[in-house]
Amino acid sequence: MKYKDYIELGFERIDLDCNVEFDESGYGGFALSKAIAQNVVIEAVNGELDKPKIYIELGNGSTIVVHTTCEDVRNIVKKLNETA
Hints:
The protein has one domain (3-83). With 84 residues, it is an alpha+beta fold. Helices cover 32% and strands 33% of the residues.
């Protein structure tokens, strides 16, 4: 997906302060994030907008990271909007 597609789905842009990214590109980077449930977030970062990930916080300080597809992201957000 493109940046605009994520924004249209309701993702929020979070500007990052990544020194590695800054050294490579001249800016600190960004992430696009959308909470889909308590402790569950979908995120995509600049340079990898075609590789979104789902982060599930387990409450014991650990997080499960699930690689997903752009099509799945669209379907998840669509289903959430239908039930809201």
